[in-house]
């Protein structure tokens, strides 16, 4: 249901979503919309997930902070995310294997 709503919200764009090999990413009921491509990472390799590298960057500035509640933490994370430029995010997450997948898929 999420993929369908996500794809409908941005119908003119191609979306590549990297997923791990968790059992919940495989289902006989899963329908992947035509403008969504699931890019499966190798099993047991969280280090190749771009979000892990992005979190590492965010945590550099937050690791010694103490937050009184979840809302304070959310606000601090959003501030760090908003400081990143598109170029910085690309340099952190734009690995060759992802770029190669885009090329192979014809969407580079």
Any overview of this molecule?
By secondary structure, this protein is mainly alpha-helical. The protein has two domains: 1-44, no CATH class; 49-94, no CATH class. Helices cover 49% and strands 9% of the residues. The chain is built from five helices and two strands. The protein has helices at residues 2-9, 50-62, 70-83, 86-93, 96-105, and strands at 15-19, 36-40. The protein has a two-stranded parallel sheet. The longest helix is centred in the C-terminal third of the chain and has 14 residues, at 70-83. The relative contact order is 0.14.
Spatial arrangement of strands, main beta sheet:
1-2
Rounded to the nearest angstrom, the distance between the terminal CA atoms is: 27 Å
What is the general shape?
Answer: globular
Helix-strand category: mainly alpha
Number of strands: 2
Taken together, the total number of domains comes to: 2
Task: State the major sheet.
Answer: 2 strands, parallel
Beta content comes to 5-15%
Order of helices and strands: HEEHHHH
Q: What is the overall pLDDT average?
A: 83
Number of helices: 5
Proportion of helical residues: 40-55%
């Amino acid at each position: 249901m999420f993929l369908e709503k996500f794809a409908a919200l941005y119908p003119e764009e191609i979306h590549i979503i990297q997923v791990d090999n968790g059992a919940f990413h495989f289902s006989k009921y899963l329908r992947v919309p035509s403008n969504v491509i699931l890019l499966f990472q190798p099993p047991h390799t969280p280090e190749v997930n771009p979000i892990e590298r992005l979190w590492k960057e965010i945590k550099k500035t937050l690791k010694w902070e103490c937050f009184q509640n979840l809302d304070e933490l959310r606000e601090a994370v959003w501030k760090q995310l908003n400081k990143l430029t598109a170029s910085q995010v690309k340099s952190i997450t734009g690995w060759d294997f992802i770029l190669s997948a885009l090329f192979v898929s014809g969407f580079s």
